[in-house]
Each structure stands twice: as structure tokens, then as C-alpha cells.
Fold:
Amino acid sequence: MNDRIRVLQRQPRRISITLSYHVHEALLSRSEEEGRSVSNLCAFLLEDALRDQRRNLVTPAQPLIHQGAISPNSHVKARRF
Structure:
């Protein structure tokens, strides 16, 4: 693989997501408090969450099950905001 292709592969990627009104408002408020864009805040939060997940080697639902918040057989998805 040549150097130009390697550099292009490391370029930031853009995605689109749909958020609830309340999540968007919380992100907007926090981004204003921290003096950063909503996009930058979202990127930071996602990277931080992925880093924590890799560090703990735990899937997102496991801590809730172990803490007794949901039963292991529950079909309800837990959401944290």
C-alpha cells in the first residue's frame, strides 16, 4: 500500500445520527459550558467511552446486570444518558 493511501485512510470520518430532543439539548448545553462544538463533544465522548470499554473489556450491558439493575434474562435494552 502506498503512502498516499495510508494517509487518506487516517482522515477523520463523518457520520450522521438521530438523537432524542433531550439528548441533543444536554449535548448542546454541555458543549456551550465547555466552549466546544457539539460535534467535537460527541467525538470526545464516543472516543472516551470506547477507550473505557476496551480498558474494562466489558460489554455495555454487563455492568447493569452485575449491579442487579436488570436481570440477565431481560429483553429490555438499558439506556444511559
